[in-house]
Amino acid sequence: MRVFVTGASGWIGSAVTDELLADGHEVLGLARSDQSAAALAAKGAAVHRGSLDDLDSLAAGAAAADGVIHLAFKHDFSDYAAAGRTEHAAVQRMLDGLADSGRPFLLASGMAGAAEGRPLTEDDASPHHGADSLRGGAENLALQYAGRGVRAVAVRFAPTVHGMGDPGFVSTLTTIAKERGAAGYVGDGATAWAAVHRSDAARLVRLALEKAQAGSRVHAAAEGSLLSRDIAAALGGHLGLPTASVAAEDAEAHFGWMARFFGAELTASSVRTTELLGWTPTSPTLFEDIAAGAY
């Protein structure tokens, strides 16, 4: 299958590109910069120049492929609302071109806000609708096209997709711990995150491309619930720093923009995903990666 991959040179996307190529698929990777284009070409992927703001380029890339894996997102936390509107417009433009084609469209989504007081399941619909909602309501937008002849699938990634070189949330927490002299957590540290290793996430994406049914949601969550105080303790132990509770009212001053995420409950089950795709995580856990020096 020839697959158009946005975010193909990113943290998750580069692993997905490797996974697809190793399994015999062709990759047409979206590249905004010369550096990204060179990295994709070195892997053996074809390069499609453009960006999330270039809607014509996105539509052309989708039209030139047998399927789409949309992983790119503007992670601009200084103007997250604008990033969501960009996402909504990009997803709609690609999907309009795929309508009635029967081709797959996989969308990278998150786990925020869809369940309260329990782990998120694949049956839980996203509460986010419309361009002005979280991530532009793109998950619900994409799944609407399952009734318009597109094999639309939402891939919900755990808040930490970890591994050696991870630039994400845990890396940010590590930097904050070094600056503050302690690995902090909010309140009693009872909030929890799901986690998945980057290579396991990439394999799940490939399996979803090949097997997932239209309208389905799949969860890239190898570990469903890791307490924030345990994450802090693991980081502190590796860095040789104490752990410390940070009062909720002081969280923003301590963690900055990370406060809204590290103090949130983002747990998930992947039981249905495992049954649907035959996906079994085999890579190191988050705590194993921390101990091995990933951060």
TrEMBL record:
* A Pfam family the protein falls into: Epimerase
Q: Which Gene3D superfamilies match?
A: NAD(P)-binding Rossmann-like Domain
Task: Give the GO molecular function terms.
Answer: aldehyde dehydrogenase (NAD+) activity
Q: Which GO terms describe its cellular component?
A: cytoplasm
Q: Which residues form the NAD-dependent epimerase/dehydratase domain?
A: 3-215
PANTHER family noted in UniProt: NAD(P)-BINDING DOMAIN-CONTAINING PROTEIN-RELATED, PROTEIN YEEZ
In its UniProt entry, what is this protein called?
Answer: Nucleoside-diphosphate-sugar epimerase
Q: Which organism is it from?
A: Jiangella alkaliphila
